[in-house]
Amino acid sequence: MALLAGLDIGTTSTIGVLIRPDGATLATASRPVRLHAEHPGWAEEEAEEWWANACAVLRELATAADAAGETIACVGVTGMLPAVVLLDAAGRPIRRSIQQSDARAGVEVEELRRSVDEARFFARTGCGINQQLVAPTLRWLEKHEPGAFARIATVFGSYDFVTHRLTGARTVEHNWALESGFLLLEERRFADDLLALGGLRPDQMPAVRTPLDIVGGVTAAAAAATGLAQGTPVIAGVADHAASTFAAGVVDDGDVLLKFGGSGDIMAATRAPIGDSRLYNDFHVVPGLFMPNGCMAASGAALNWLAATAAAHLPLAAGQTVHQALDQLAAATPAGADGLVFLPYVLGEKTPLHDPAARGVLLGLGLHHRTGHVWRAALEGIAFGFRHHLDVFAEAGLAAERFRASDGGASSRVWMQIVSDVIQQPIQLLRGHPGSALGAAFVAGYAVGAFDRWDQIDRFVGPAERIEPDPGNRAVYDRLYGVYRETYERLRTLFPRLAG
Question: Domain range spanning residue 341?
């Protein structure tokens, strides 16, 4: 039986999965990724590290396929967006990627806002004027790194880059194109005047493709590097949050996915785009559907930073990870962390604030607080961020009735209980959901005829534990959520002064 490979170019790791169409998962593999944050608000990664990781992970998957006596029929790559990858005329990365969570271009966002009619821009693109757009990032580069800017031959995203290395094809998947702010939403094509907002010529942008498009086969060089067979078909790729949303079964009104990765994502499914610029519009994996969503700049990334800080002095039991040890301390800490509130804006904030100047805050710190309090406050702060999005969803007229959780953070039972208590809704955990890589593998299979119905994803993913909210924690979280929201409003004008 032919096999299908999915590869996720994530913020904190590169993950691969190998599946059979009958619902079996044959292998998974991963490699860590280093996030570079050398200046306040910056977030960069090395594209060549992604490629090295992709080669290592795909070699493991290819070895597993060989051991099973089977072949890989198609490959799909997914990844975060819209990371900005710049190639020169020879196809080499000009500099590190600038990640979707990067907040350096606040001045350029405001310049863009002053130079366009924001309502008309939103009507054309489905995007508000915010740090998610690629134009402000390119304007920053033109000002501060003019030599690099002058060498740009291709602009695209993380998974587009890996797809390019696998096939030689120069394409961009349609959700990266949409979130870039260069795409006309209804016509689904780049507009020259929108590209000009980022100083780009039309020839610097690749052709737009949908996830089901097969853009090429694995080249001889890529075959040697990855262990894949030369000529293996590769699809255009899938945005990570779209792949994860689809794999979680979010396809109906009222379905909501909470995605706990390097960033914190919240996604729904609708028949039409939404008209609220505080949120993002994206295309759902299933043709004809849209995926209104929000994204917090830092979720797992903030927790990983805290964990790395705590690792030096935290005793670990045999086989225990730092995150597990911290969760154990948090579980022994009362709800509300004894009055400690954490604002997780360590990389600025994307939706719904769109404030690249925002900064992380630990409010209420006292000598009675210990490591467990800080960790629990961080878990609660990210949960408050999800609750903030649910408030905006309601204001935008989006139903939020059934909640599912996915990706690495969903493995923390302590965190999932906190989130359920903060939003006072049950959360359905998922069995067999390894993250976005599964969605990419499934779409690759659909493209080559291994599947003929979208609901066949149910072969791989099903319900696991259902987390019920503790009504006894409602009052403390309602009170501290109010403090969380008010803290930002009171400090909002101070944050830019910190960057001075």
Answer: 249-432+470-500
